[in-house]
Amino acid sequence: MSNGSAVESRIAELGLELPAVAAPVAAYVPAVVTGSWVHTSGQLPFVDGQLPAAGKVSASGAAGTVSPEDAHELAARAALNAVAAVKEAVGDLDRVVRVVKVVGFVASDPGFTGQPGVINGASELLGRIFGDAGVHARSAVGVAVLPLDAPVEVELVAEFR
Q: Taking all residues of the chain, what is their mean pLDDT, rounded to a whole number?
């Protein structure tokens, strides 16, 4: 916690640490500021530069799939990575007035319909980090595959002062 921000103190109280922003895996930047808005690119659930799990999310428990519970935790990790991108873009997380919109993508087994529960991992973490300012509009979308075979990807839009 380099700048003593209240938001970063809450992150530490949760037993978490803001990670370094992941290097883009294609031709984009992690976040863009326009006016008083910061838009993050989709963030994968990297931990120390590695995906802790890969594959499609399924409730079946089939080999090679990711459980909804594990995907819920991965969505929280992807959201934390998005928060790190916000910090890099605006300098101080205490400047965030509101998390406005979250879009979560879930690489889903064809019969899986629990995308909202998976992306709750991201939404719940943002609420714990930002309090009322972390309550947001959201989409939870099932997709066939994500970059690097990640199970989840999360992007967000935040307003800052």
A: 95
